Every structure is written in C-alpha cells, then in structure tokens.
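ARCHIVE RECORD
Type: protein–small molecule complex
Small molecule: sulfopyruvate
Source of inputs: curated submission
Record status: active
Notes field left blank by submitter.
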Amino acid sequence: MPTSSTQSAKLPSKNKALLNWVDEVALLTKPDRVVWCDGSEKEKDRFTKEAVDAGVLIQLNQKKRPGCYLHRSNPNDVARVEHLTFICTPTQQEAGPTNKWMAPDEAKQKLVQLCDGAMRGRTMYVVPYVMGPLGSPSSKVGIELTDSVYVVLNMRIMTRMGKPALDMLGDSGAFNRGIHCLLDVNPERRYITHFPQENLIWSVGSGYGGNALLGKKCLALRIGSYLAKREGWLAEHMLILGVESPEGQKTYVAAAFPSACGKTNFAMMLPPHRFDGWKVFTVGDDIAWLRPGPDGRLWAINPENGYFGVAPGTSYKSNSSAMKSIEKNTLFTNVALTPDGDIWWEGMDNPAPAGTVDWQGRPWTKDSTEKGAHPNSRFTAPMANNPVLSKHVDDPEGVPISAIIFGGRRATTVPLVLQSVNWVHGVYMGATMGSETTAAATGAVGVVRRDPMAMLPFCGYNMGDYFQHWLAMRAKVKYPPRIFMVNWFRKAKDGKFLWPGYGENMRVLKWIIDRAMVRTGGEETPVGWVPREGDIDLSGLDISSEAFKAATAVDLNEWKQELTSTKEFFDSIGATMPAALKLQRELLLSVIDAVQGK
Ligand code: GTP
Ligand code: SPV
Ligand code: MN
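STRUCTURE (tokenized, with ligand):
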C-alpha cells in the first residue's frame, strides 16, 4: 500500500510528526494514492480536470465566467448539521450545555470504525494550509487529510494552501490535525467532531462547507475559540471592515451577525451617494481573530483567504463587490444553471432565462414551486477578486478595532442601533443576542433562538466560560472597542422591513464610528444609547419620519419581555454563567421598573 513514507523521496516535507500522522491515517483509511498539495496553478488545473471528469464539477461558460465551476451536493448534504456536530472534551462540563458532547474515546472508536478502509479506491489529499496572513504570530497551520477533490479546490481558495503552509510549519509538531472522509455522504454516518485538547478535527459523511472545509468553522472558530481562551485572545464569527472618511481618516470595526444575517453584505457595503468620498474596505466577511496589541488596542486579522458566501439575494444592485468577486475563478455550490452555462439564483439582477435548470439539475421556471437555487447555495471566491479589498488583509498584525457590533434578525424589540454603556453591558448585549433561524443550518427557519455573539454553533467550549473570557478580556485591552447592537430586520405591522438595509447601513455605521470616537450625540434609554432624530444622516433617503422612529424605537414593555426571556437562557447555562451578566440583566429590569414608576 502506498503511504507517504514509501514515497519519501518525493515528499515535500521532512516533518516527522506530520509524516507519521499522514502514514497513520493512510494505514487506517487505505487510499489507493496519497497526494500532497503544493497549492500551485498547475496542480489546480490538474485537480479541476479530475473533478470535471469525475462529475464532481461542471464547467461553466469560460467566456462569461473564466475559471468558474458548479458543484451539486448530494441533496441530503446542503448545510451545516448542528445536531451531528460534537465537542469531544474529556468531560461534558467542558463542552457545556449548548454543545453536543461525546466522550473522546467513544467518538474515536466510532470514527475509526467508519473510516477503516473508507478511502479504498480513492485518493487521500494532504492539504497543508495557513489560517491568517503568512508570517503573522496570530496565524495557525492546519493539515486536512481529505478524499474530496471539491474540498481541496475550496480550501485552495479559502486558505493560504500548499507549500507556504509547510514552510511556515517547518519541523514543528504544532499543527491542527484534520481528517475528512466523505464515506457514502449519508446523514446516518455523519459526524463533525472536535477534540480541542488534542487540536484535532475529525469529520465524516458530509462534503458541505462548514462541515468539510475544516479550516473554517471547525478550526478558526471551534478549536480557535478554545485556543483563544487558553492564550488570551478572541476567535469570533465576525466580519472586519475599514471605513475611510473623505478626509482620509480610517476606522475599523468588527461585527458578529449569525449565519445568513448579513456579514458578507455589510463587509462589502457600497456607501450611498450621500456618502460620496467615503469608502468601505473589506478585511474579512466571516471570521475574526482579535488580540490585544502592545498599544493597548484590540487588533484583528481575518484568518481566511476567500469568501464562502450565500448566493441567493446577491446582485449587482444589493452587493456589486460580491458580484465582481465571483466573475472569475469561483466555485458555485447548489445554484441554478442557465442554458448558456452561467449561474442563476433568486434575487439576482435578471430573471432566469428559459431553459434554466435548478440546483439539482431539473428543469426550472419561475412558476416552479421549489426554488431554483438552494436557499443556502454558496459561492467560493478568492478575496483577491474583491474590488474593495482592504490593503491590510495580509498585514501580520492586522487592523485596530474601534467598535464591535452585534446584530441579529429580529422582527421586533431590537432597535436599528443601540450602544452599550460600558464593556460589561456590551458583553451582555452579545451574550443575549437573539436571531430568527435561517437556511444556513438544517432545521426550522424563522424561529427566534438565542445565539450569543453569533457563536452558538461555533463555540468550542462551555458557553459560560466563554462569557467569562469575554468579560476578562477587558483587563487586557486598555482602549477597548465600544460595543453596539444593530438590527437591519425589524418589521412594520405590514410585515415589511422598516429599514432599507444594505448600502444604507452606512448611515448607521457612520453614527457608530462617530460615537466610538465620541463625536456625536445620542439619547440615553434604560437599555442603552440610541440616535436621536438628526443624529443619523437620512438625507437623500426615502424613509418616512414614522418609519425611522419605529425602526429606532425602544419599547420598554417589549424589553421587559426580552429581559425576562433571557433569564431562561442564562439559567440554562448553569453554574458557569457569570454573576456579572446575571446581575446586569436584573439591573436593566429594575431600571425599567424605576423609570416606569413601579
Ligand atoms: P454566512 O455566510 O452564513 O455567515 O452569512 P452572512 O452573515 O455573511 O450573510 P449574508 O451577507 O450573505 O446575507 C444573508 C442574507 O441576508 C441575504 O439573503 C441578504 O440578502 C440578506 N441581507 C443582508 N444584509 C441585509 C440588510 O441590510 N437588510 C436586509 N433586509 N437583508 C439583508
Ligand atoms: C455559516 O453558516 O455561518 C457559514 C457557512 O459561513 S459554513 O461555512 O457552512 O459554516
Ligand atoms: Mn458564517
């Protein structure tokens, strides 16, 4: 059987720990071939051809979309699976009440059994990758062993993959180990498991996004959050953007919104005409690693190298930078296919041409009862394609963060924007974030659930300890970012969104930045600061004064209900729930009672 050591003359690495581990996994999975990925263009062309020949990728019209391909998932495998995602810490207490837990030995036993001989007749790709800018002290090296060429081609876009990763690793044994086997892509045999203490990820039975591209949610967030707690930093489900004023002043913010709640859109926002001269630059659209800097500020890097973005709703009108990012060298997953070999989805600028087939390859028209593109269909695009990419994305030290924004999808209660009064109150805002569920994970869509810091599916350890870590970070950052909450999704009685959103969010962002720099007004309410009429520039925007008032209103009775329902969530965390946050909740409630004269 050919394993890495039998081919050692050609091996690109002399790293003993790595070679031994690759051998060990090959002995178990028994692939016909072991292929080490170098990340070169030549290799990409070869893998792409293999994927097309195997029917894994469909070549798109190369005149219209050079370097672009379509992948159709197994219809049972189109989103993350939270009920099959496990944190395998020695005790259940360490994983906490919000995570599914399996004892490490039990999990390994199960996975060894499933993976025994699983790559027979297949290729095992060795994918070395770096999360974070090359050479950054914040960056981490991972090695993913996978039998999916689709995963390899996606990892090549989403991470710094190949030789640079092996160079950065050298002969160190400190790398994340990731094992990924497709098996028969059957939900009955699907497990996404994490072993934080061993820096190990083992994922089987799914080829989809966050389940299979192990650098993303598994390493950068679940394992990342565990390492961050241990090492004194934060690994967060946040976009990072930079704003440049007409005077050339640059400010950076990081924002956590749950899956499919607007991170990519916000990170690539195009300011409206009223803001001519203002520029927004993308540093990252999904994940941020934040570290206290020697200057007392909090600095952020984007560990990723590309965008795994939600396709439906993306158009030149709503997000032209995303559309430009997918004009070339992009992989599309589960979108519709037009007869001229281009892609289509709901919410694109033009209707689907006649002869379009849906994400499963079936004839589709606008009268079809099902969607043409799967609601969680995605594009995988290199960030280098983004016309508004920040020039600091490769800076090893990252960018300094002035404001942190938490946001959810809430039809009621949460105003357009709300500023916390201090760090603890800001952490409270993040910890109590609620959002209506979306198609990014399997399960019912549209139910409000608590999604603290947008990390409910991604925190790799006990949620109460995570909150405590957030509170403790205050002592490590002399000049902490100001913390805000936003809600682009509040609805009027008629069910329509009160706020136009997208580029118009620039108006809110400007208030946030001005507040963070202590340059503009606001109104104190019992639950935080909101803009007064006139504090947010609405010129040139077609919104009635009533709609704006309704969008920014704080209804104390709604908040009482909100604060009451939060108790249940806090109680569910149990003994690790920090007293400071429990007391913060009670304080807010008693302040409301006091101002209501009760
Ligand atoms: P993940 O990649 O799953 O983490 O999602 P994301 O947070 O990056 O969300 P994305 O920007 O892709 O947006 C998801 C959905 O929200 C899309 O259908 C958008 O059209 C919609 N959306 C984004 N921004 C806004 C907004 O400001 N207002 C409204 N009403 N909808 C928005
Ligand atoms: C999310 O669901 O938050 C995503 C997509 O960004 S996935 O990579 O599948 O997690
Ligand atoms: Mn995400």
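CURATOR ANNOTATION: The chain has 16 helices and 29 strands.
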